[in-house]
Specification:
Blueprint lengths: L1 E22 L9 E10 L6 E4 L6 E7 L2 E13 L2 E3 L32 H8 L6 H14 L1 E2 L10 H7 L1 E2 L1 H14 L4 E7 L12 E9 L2 E5 L14 E3 L8 E9 L3 E7 L15 E5 L7
Parallel strand pairs: 7-8
Antiparallel strand pairs: 1-4, 1-5, 1-13, 1-14, 2-5, 3-4, 6-15, 9-10, 9-12, 10-11, 11-15
Helix pairs in contact: 2-4, 3-4
Length: 293
Amino acid sequence: MVRIHLAIDLQYEINPPGADFIFNVQAAHAPQQTVGWEQLQVSQPVPLLMHTDAATRSRTLRLTAVPGPLSLRYRATLDIDHHVAQPDSVFETPVAQLPPEALTYIYPSRYCQSDCVTAMANELFGQLPQGYRRVQAIQQWVQSQVSFESNTSNSMTSALDTLNDRKGVCRDFAHLMITFCRALNIPARFTTGIDFGADPALGPTDFHAYVEAYIGHRWYLFDPSGTAIPMGFVRIGTGRDAADASFATIFGNVVTHAPRIDISAQTSPQHGWLMPVHRQEALSTDGGWQAGG
């Protein structure tokens, strides 16, 4: 089990006449991710509307801010008890056996045009044995073919752009891996967390995009950018692609400041809390719907 302490601070300047926000920064209530304690503070005394998505367990906060400064402060302590499997024992789930909710993640989406790379996906990965190893091969190919370079993409960059440019940031790696998975009828979804274990040379601790693929009747974790440690990922937002899982969606004239984020792991042999490390096994924090969702 991993015990994580998380702190997120967001700051904005709201111009008249005000702005609407949809935040997605709270840790999701996943089957194997338990939020033991949390605190959420918003500087403006405005009504807060909370919602938990029944399928993904992602949590959103909606508010309407008035002109002036706005800050959001989130603190949490949570335990992650990963499901661990041997990679060679995890097989792909046939389309006929997919739960209805997983079908959402097998279709093309705004940033993941999987219908445009079917031939390429089959040429690269179609002859590989189906299962965790094939998804892992997609992850490794994306990581080997795309260079991690800050400020080389924007909110309009899609998987096809990344395939052409061969550079990007974590969200671009995730979009490309998802696209190839879906082209092979493997459900894959875009997931946001925090970049636990990332090299400080890449910049301050930040939000991180990774991939969950539905194989073996579970959602297994993959980090195609290879910049962080999956065992330390706190699942926050989940969607078809980045359009569904932004940490803040803003409607209005707003000046945004860079987020301040801190994440750490607490170790204790007595409690069985382990330091997150890179592991060879298949890891999951969500059994999906067929396994208990």
